[in-house]
Predict the structure.
Amino acid sequence: MTQEDIRGLPGLGGDPMTSPLYDTDVWSAYANEAGRIQFPDRFIESSLERIPRAMQMGGRVAVNLNTGNTGHSVVMQSVVQKTITKVNGTVVQKLFYYAMNPGNGGSIIRITGRSIVRSYNVFYIF
């Protein structure tokens, strides 16, 4: 989905340069249009473990990133777990989060776990 697709949902619209959208309105409109149910995460600081589980269960996950003075919604594309073996033999596992950015033509971006934990909202859509 692109920004134009989102703004084309019933009840949204407007110019992206002058009419910001509220994330709760966006994901409610999307869920209604797609025949799905959306749940906001009330405990964002612990959402990093729920995001991959929700995606494995067939859900979609939207994150409203904190960009300083406003929010910006992205939709999780994938979560990749990498196992890294350091030179000293220590094995570390890391999660990498990738999201689709509708404000940039639907391109895929990597976001940090820290930015997710500091986000305004996380929505699970089933």
The radius of gyration is 16 Å. The CA atoms of residues 45 and 117 lie 5 Å apart. DSSP finds four helices and six strands in the chain.
